[in-house]
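Quick one before lunch.
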Amino acid sequence: MTDVETIAADTCVVAMGNDSNSVLRPLGIRLPIYPVKGYSMTFPVGQWNGAPVIPMADTGRHIGITRLGDRIRVAGTAEFAGNDRSLNPKRIGNLRRFFLDVFPDYPDPTAGVGWTGFRPMTPDGIPYLGETPIQGLYLNTGHGHLGWTMSCGSGQALAHLISGATGDLDLTGMTLASR
Ligand SMILES: Cc1cc2nc3c(=O)[nH]c(=O)nc-3n(C[C@H](O)[C@H](O)[C@H](O)COP(=O)(O)OP(=O)(O)OC[C@H]3O[C@@H](n4cnc5c(N)ncnc54)[C@H](O)[C@@H]3O)c2cc1C
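Model of the flavin-adenine dinucleotide complex:
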């Protein structure tokens, strides 16, 4: 149901990340998905010659640095703040400091734009994929900090399941019924 129309469908997939429960709860399904807040800072490359061309990760501090064309993105942080979407200046400051520690020659230490978003996290980090007790209603949600990584595999596994094709991914442990 959109704000302009209602579309009849045989099959529906709930893929709404942290908001999944808003449609599932009225149907008697409640998933343990919590918004874990992350932050990024994006810096313009400009005329800077020292910009990295490959992604880097500091696994100790859980911060990644990625080149995005003429920008550099520094991302990380896991904060438990409910649905608070405000930019915590301390968290943003940490990302800036980290970036400037790694690249002290970056020409403009005051540049950069902050952002925050939520990871739809389950307690064990495993997404919910597959059928629900309601016929035609499927789940593809709760991918936490690895939603981009798992998106193609999850989509394909669900497409196989819905279309009745044989897939090579065993969904045991990801379906509602098996958890
Ligand atoms: C700082 C940060 C860094 C990250 N880094 C990585 C990384 O390096 N690699 C990686 O794999 N993952 C990473 N992630 C995680 C990744 O972003 C998430 O796992 C992924 O976005 C989850 O995708 P999703 O489509 O399930 O949910 P979302 O991206 O949250 O999308 C849900 C969508 O549902 C829509 N929606 C909600 N309610 C409704 C409604 N009622 N009707 C219609 N639509 C609705 C929303 O508007 C939204 O577009 C990172 C996340 C953060 C915050």
